Amino acid sequence: xxxxxxxxxxxxxxxxTLPAFGRRSPPAFHQAAEIETLVNRAAEALEERxxxxxxxxxxxxxxxxxxxxxxxxxxxxxxxLFNAAHPDREGRDLLHERDADGKPFHQDFIDTVSRxxxxxxxxxxxxxxxxxxxxxxxxxxxxxxAGAEVLIGAGVYVE
Length: 159
Fold this sequence. Notes:
Elements lengths: L1 H16 L14 H18 L3 H6 L12 E5 L4 E4 L21 H12 L1 E9 L6 E13 L2 E10 L2
Antiparallel strand pairs: 1-2, 1-5, 3-4, 4-5
């Protein structure tokens, strides 16, 4: 019995040191289920309508974009196909882009959907209209647009 009790702290310590990418369960914040539902619905819309859905995703107040929440689409090579809040990023290869802490978050998005199909990734990114990075958690899932495998995501700023 004593050995079993000693193993639990070790397992907890190991779990705390694992990389954050690919979390199957969301971080502890109230918008997690809302973000997952939004992204999963958007993935279905992309599969049905293809790139034509981008115009709908970009509109504020259209149900796809509200507050600081917006959708983004990235192909599996790291090319940003769509970003509702940052259209200047579209068409750019951001596979090797790193956040303020040096984390290659686009690679983490791709790794997450490649390994699990969907999941949560944390990184530092500025809110729309700001330049100072803050903690952001994004839920990403694999989908297809025009026959190509892509990922779609949305996130929430937690600070």
